[in-house]
Known about the structure:
Blueprint: H1 2-24, E1 32-39, H2 45-50, H3 55-61, E2 63-70, E3 85-93, E4 98-104
Antiparallel strand pairs: 1-2, 1-3, 2-4, 3-4
Amino acid sequence: MFSRIFVALPLALLVAANAHLEARDQCNTGAIQCCQSLQQADQSASLVQKCGLTVAEAAAQGLVGVNCSPLTVVGTGSGCQASAQTACCKNVYFNGGVNIGCSAINVNA
């Protein structure tokens, strides 16, 4: 009886850990972004207006990410720099220069 538990337990833990890692590395709105800063829409009004949106429209979508690039490899040292913030963003403008509808995420959780 106990031998079955000791055989099944590591397998169950491996499956649970893998599910956690897959959920952590996903961003439902696209690739995880590395942004130099995340701001409220009213703090980056000129950038928001260049995207053809009003500050109110951008604020309703979430934070504004500035100078963002896709994060391709999580946990290998080639991801975000220490000063950058990881985020999920809905709308990318100017090749990542401005991202609207961002929410900060913690890839280390």
